[in-house]
Request: fold
Amino acid sequence: MLYFVATPIGNLKDMSFRAIEVLNAVDEIACEDTRHSITLLNHYDIKKPLFSYHKFNEREAGEKIIKKLKEGKNIAVISDAGTPSVSDPGCVLTTMLIEEGLDFTVIPGACAFVNALVLSGVDTSRFCFLGFMPDKSGERKEFLERYKNLDMPLIFYSAPHDVKKDIESIYAVFGERNAVAVREITKLHETVERFSLKDGLPTEPKGEYVLIVDKGENINPNLQLSEKEHIQKYLDLGLDKKEALKKVAKERGVSKSSLYKYTIED
Reply:
């Protein structure tokens, strides 16, 4: 059996009894960074052979894990913090395990974005977790455009050197919204900062952040339509193509030229 084991995101006391039990019982532990994980394992006096499993060797290490499982070994996978596979290595391995018909399970525990969402104070009945944004500006804009009209809070992970750029990028696509930045979750200096996207983060970035962007107020229902449906709505109201494109471009915050393709009949 392979176990994906959640580990603390800050406070070492957040390790579950079951997680400790499983890590003591397995034959080997695959770690995102063995040097980082050894602190946690030593804290709970867990002495097991360790090997690396991270985003740069996912397939190679995955093949190694599968070989060990087929030899009858029990393996645990842990990331540096939180739940493996959630913006951490793991997805490639689960696909490989399913293809091989091998069993795996999850030992639940801490997950940074869930805790940050509760701390934020926004409506938690529905939300969308988006993880880290793409690095390239063009891909980042395209990525954000896909989600700007969702009527629910959006959650992002952001590195300290990216957080200002991330907030500026979100504001450029979403416009003004309320946001919350959470860092050092479960630690001594846990911080929750509420701000507007327009004004940006009120303090200098330090550490990794979870950004929660609240849903927009009074979202135009036309933005729930596809581009083609949006244009057709104004054509049906009697506007000519030029005026329809102008109104749709303004409402969607895009250029008219990007909409022409939706007026061409198949």
Remarks:
- Residues 58-70 form the longest helix (13 residues).
